[in-house]
Amino acid sequence: MVGGRRFRPGGGFGRQLDEYETRVGVPPPTESPAPPPGGLVDSAVYLRGHRFASPSGLAETYRCLQEQDGAMAWIGLYRPDIGQITSLAREFRLHDLAVEDAINAHQRPKLERYGHTLFVVLRAARYDDLREEVEFSELHLFIGPGFVVTVRHGEAPDLAAVRRRMEIEAQMLARGPEAVLYAILDQVVDGYAPVVAGLENDIDEIETQVFGGDPNASRRIYGLSREVIQFQRAARPLLSVLDALADGAGSVSADEELRRYLRDVTDHLTQVVERVDAFRHLLQNILTVNATLVSQQQNEEMRSLTAASYTQNEELKKVSSWAAILFAPTLIGTVYGMNFVHMPELNWRFGYLFALLLMLLVCGTLYVIFKRRGWL
């Protein structure tokens, strides 16, 4: 929040940026969302809310900060190397455990106090529309008397926008390092809104897939469930950080106005957490419905296969029955067709008639038997 207004990306401040250089006296900050790895993104020294120096390196920043009483340094780093972190730790007396966390990253959102220094870990999120995925990044902050150090391990959040808005509203920046912390927290929470919208759109698409019988729906539900869980792990622990700051447990100063702003950020974050919790329950229900629909479809396929197998079996019975019936006269005819000299009934006057009657008798008997069994 700045001057009692909520931070919103691009909201209300865009037309003021053209006047920034004339009013402040230096060019706008150049911190970009994707600077080269291992570099100092932006460093500035502020006095009473106004930038009066833009050092090109850490050593120059230290010198400017020491030469001006009451000044505040805001140093932005993007995936810094060990040498830069070591230099900052030595200059600002950062705790070894906090420095180790900042180097290794992969921390959960938390707030820790080491003497007069606060160490804050935030998990920012960004929704990639092209891949329809949520990208998470980690941000570490060292807040102490007269300095703010931000260490990013990902593309989000856009701290250049935070710096521009803070420099435009000098009265807010003049409140000191804690105001910068609150502004960054606000930016991180505001960045969750597009992610929530993207997840909600994905869930709507999944519902269409499920009821449309898409076989790939289960895979997408599983992938989206993992993203929602990761989002929960990023947003939910941040509530305890905000509550601690609002209660003054981790505050560098006791600015009641900043706490009011922070409570507003907490309200927005609570809404995000509640919606994400609802997403997780909804995905579980969708997964259950999808499993039921898949089971029903498999049952229908099994019934169809069973019916087809039954029909095929009935046809096979008929074919087998007629084959057996036709085999009987063929066998008799084959026996009496051998024409051996010494063979019964060859010289019998009624031999031919006897053979025909025998064929008819055998065929009729087999027909009756198969008919009674339902094969014909």
Topology:
Elements (H helix, E strand, L loop, with lengths): L19 H5 L14 E9 L2 E4 L4 H10 L4 E7 L3 H11 L3 H9 L5 E5 L2 E12 L4 E12 L2 E6 L6 H10 L1 H4 L3 H35 L5 H30 L9 H81 L14 H22 L4
Helix pairs in contact: 3-4, 5-7, 7-8, 7-9, 8-9, 9-10
Quick rundown:
The chain is of the alpha+beta class and 376 residues long. It is 58% helix and 15% strand.
Structure commentary:
By secondary structure, the chain is an alpha+beta fold. 58% of the residues lie in helices and 15% in strands. It contains 10 helices and 7 strands. It has helices at residues 20-24, 58-67, 82-92, 96-104, 159-168, 170-173, 177-211, 217-246, 256-336, 351-372; strands at residues 39-47, 50-53, 72-78, 110-114, 117-128, 133-144, 147-152. Strands 2-1-3-7-6-5-4 form a 7-stranded mixed beta sheet, with helices on both faces. It is rod-shaped. The protein starts with 19 loop residues before the first helix and ends with a helix. 30% of the residues are buried. Residues 1-37 have low confidence and may be disordered.
